[in-house]
Model the fold of this input.
Amino acid sequence: MSTRSAKQVLDAVVEAGRWAPSVHNTQPWTFALSGEEISLRADVGRKLAVSDAAGRELLISCGAALFTMRTAMRCEGYEPLVRVLPDPDRPALLATIKAGAQVEADEPTRLLGAEIERRRTHRAGFADVPVPDRLIESLVRAAMSEGAMLTPVRSADAVNVLAALTQAAQGVQMQDQRFNLEVIRWARPPGSARTDGVPAEGYPQEAAPTEPHFPQRHYSWRHGWGGAGEQSAAAIGVVAVLTTAGDSREEWIAAGQALQHALLHASAHGVSAAFHTQALEMDLLREFLRQELCAGEYPQMIMRFGVTFDAKEMPRRPVSDVVE
Done:
């Protein structure tokens, strides 16, 4: 059982929450401590106004932070008591969390907690190392336990469709200066001291092609930053789609929790994920995917799981920046 003070526990939970993944590493959250309760709030100034006008990706990012905090609290020896969207009059207040009864964290929870600071998003192809089917099945169960569905795409035709739609969306976005400027706003130059966004060493100038090709974001647009990357073709990994039955704000938060549960579990077994949300940022393509490939469920994330031996450090805003 925990022997730490309530303040030490809450500080540790907030520290963990800031390590969650977020679109373009925007880290669009703040935390407020009041007594023995933490409030998770959306930092709407970090919302992607062009590609995420509805705030769907922002809430998925914050949902990932919420699951991270829940995991950290269990690792600290307390059952988390969570309320999601507790106040309709305060839309930026996404959740509250406080410590409930003391519990002993089980081995799966400790395994997830150990990956909170180690997990990394990958932005290139993968090594030619297979991902075990049993691991993918466990990722599916992890997402399901949080109220979402993670579906590995086994059909080659369906993978080709997802790749083609990602290419199409990327091509359209590249013609729109607003999209390009929004992406490079979060691309960091070499040597930058900023603690958000994607650092130059975190993405390749030119990603190695996969077959079929899933394009990466053009963080290097017009400036040539980024790592050298691999020149030969890279493995595609296992393509998967995360969906929810509905498309409400609550379900976006649930999708983020499901995503982070799967990511931490994958990381514990040496597997990383690359994200491809371009097609989901265009309403017509997202609706096409929902009807034609997702059996009417709402696609919230397209990703690839694979093995990489090239983990990059990713900056995080200091606690003083995110705690109100």
In short: The chain is about 35% helix and 15% strand. The chain has a mean pLDDT of 93. The first helix runs from residue 6 to 17.
